[in-house]
């Protein structure tokens, strides 16, 4: 039977684990960033592998035959490592990446730093910042006010001077997002192009209120990587391995 590593940390990773376990021999992997992660069904390992060399050693030691990478579209380092090591070891590798959002009228930028520059250039004053814990530090020098929504609290040293932190985890609904934008008198939303339905309501709410959006584009995928957009397609790819 094929033994599969499922790189997760996303709703898609959990859904794929649920659709494969127990009839496929899978082990899910989480980075261990959040203290209370939502766990996939089936066997799970937690923590980094120790770079490219650590991942290569681990795949060989665990007799892994194939890897499905269902990590977040912005988790570019682990994806680069997995694509490289699978190429070297000649193991089948699939990227499961949910389709990106259509940016529409959003100001599209390539990085958190560029998003912070756009906020300054446009003179936005009250920003709903949803780029995640690691994205906050790019805004540390801004004089604007930020409503910062994150799963785990950022380090105090990277926070902008004027802010409020909201700790929460999606999914988020349209009515709640509309109320949040109104309550805090938000004049711009800053987001990554994460894609998917769990967090897209903020875009619909911003559009309804005519609030501009600054959207950080996804990092490019490694060249030549097989990619699917849905859990069902990933499950079909796994079925073809046997
Ligand atoms: P990253 O920058 O691509 O990876 C940094 C390091 O974390 C990797 O080199 C690896 O350490 C370790 N790592 C990442 N994902 C791992 C996994 N699934 N299993 C084992 N080790 C992993 O990753 P990130 O952006 O910090 O994301 C970390 C995790 O959070 C991922 O599982 C991702 O799916 C999830 N997540 C990320 C975001 C986001 O916006 N980036 C949003 C939601 C969920 P070693 O080099 O030591 O192997």
From TrEMBL:
Ligase listed as a keyword: no
Gene3D superfamilies: 3.40.50.2300
EC code: 1.3.1.54
One MF annotation (Gene Ontology) recorded for this entry: precorrin-6A reductase activity
Record keywords: Cobalamin biosynthesis, Oxidoreductase
InterPro entries given in the database record: Precorrin-6x_reduct
Record GO biological process: cobalamin biosynthetic process
Coiled coil (UniProt feature): none
The protein's annotated pathway: Cofactor biosynthesis; adenosylcobalamin biosynthesis
Protein's recorded name: Precorrin-6A reductase
Organism of provenance: Mycobacterium attenuatum
